[in-house]
Amino acid sequence: MNAPLSLAGLALTIVILWANLRPWWTGSRDPKLLAPFGKGAAFGILGAMCAGGLLGWLAGCAPAVGSTAGSKAVGAVTGAQSGTTLARGSLSGSLTEEGAVVVFLLTCGVVFAWKKAGKDDKKRMAGGAFCGATLCATAGIAGALRFLPDLVNQTGNAGRAAFESAGIL
Length: 169
Prior knowledge:
By secondary structure, the protein is an all-alpha fold. Helices cover about 70% and strands about 0% of the residues. It has one domain (about 5-165). α1 packs across α3 (about 55-80) and α2 (about 35-50) crosses α3 (about 55-80).
């Protein structure tokens, strides 16, 4: 499922982003407090790079879920219906085998962090994953992050070269 994100879905994403960043901004601004949201956002962005599999499917569903929920929320608050979609962007389909291994390992790290996290941090991680996946469905954010799949692929290539003793170690 690769539905475009609607304007109302973007509004919902911004609300979730705001709900997670505002307490940090008005509080101590300790970077550690952003870690759960950041881990989730990284997970969502990594999922957006996947052309298939569980991560690709979840990232592909996020814009549709956000658009539906956002449309209901905007309609309930304002009485106006929203169905306008934003220009679609995509990071998917550009991972190499080495890059896919990096995404797999990072996903395992996020899963381990999820299992260890408390209830509030799990909510922040889920919100971050949703924001990361939905924002990457827009042309602007996908365009701004177009370097990321190459970076992940290069990281995988460097790891492979290290394990194959290609003169790195």
